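>> Question from a student workshop board

For tomorrow's exercise we were told to take the sequence and the ligand below, predict the bound structure, and bring the output to class. My setup keeps failing. Could a helper post the expected result so I can at least see what it should look like? The ligand is S-adenosyl-L-homocysteine.
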Amino acid sequence: MKAAKIRLYVEQPLGQGQTVPLDRAQAHYLFGVMRQATGDAVLVFNGQDGEWRARVMEAGKRGGLIKAEERTAPQNDPPDLWLLFAPIKKARTDFIVEKAAEMGAARIVPVQTEFTNAERIRQDRLQAHAVEAAEQCGGTFVPEVTGLHALSRLLADWPQERQLMFCDEALAGHSSALSGGLVRGAPWAILIGPEGGFSQAERDRLAALPFAHAVSLGPRILRADTAAVAAMTLWQRHLGDWA
Ligand code: SAH
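>> Workshop helper replied:
Here is what the output should look like for this input. Compare the format with yours to find the bug.
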């Protein structure tokens, strides 16, 4: 069996001969968990400079040093797609962030809607999930996970050129799939509601916004985590980098 490639996200610049110090967590992962040692090669990326093969120069318990040797893949950024979702239970919220990173979201924005239960999120934990997903899926980009924003505020300050795919459970079973005539290459966002769905007031407000497009995700009501993956699949297929 071919050993799985070890990929590590780092924050430092990457280039030929560039050395990168490793922090405690990275050293623990590479040397403790993955059993790498001085002289071994690992793949690294920083979200900007593509993927590099790097050599382990120093391996310690609390740190280490690697040196970038050769670029193995160019930088590949996802389309300009934001995923807005209302946080749900912890494990399902983690799942949404992980899947959004794999599916190619450029930015992940937890939103507080009228029927959202969660009042706070662990942004650092969610960001760590996005990093792990990028390491695992071969991507060279890590989406930013923002803090929790109130949906009403976000909509008030919305950049008008960014289109919004509003996934409305009230349209389940209606034929309002993502329709033709939508601009490719434009910035977009997807909006997924909480377990309790959207309020009528939210629905009315969204209906009046010129950049919002209400969309059905088929005849069944999906759980929010399923809906997030389904919506991103649909968008990527029609307007994104699967098309
Ligand atoms: N409790 C609500 C369902 C919420 S589902 C009810 O029973 O009506 C959680 C979120 O997933 C929704 O807010 C919506 O954004 C999305 N969603 C689920 N199924 C959908 C569908 N068939 N069409 C569009 N959006 C859907």
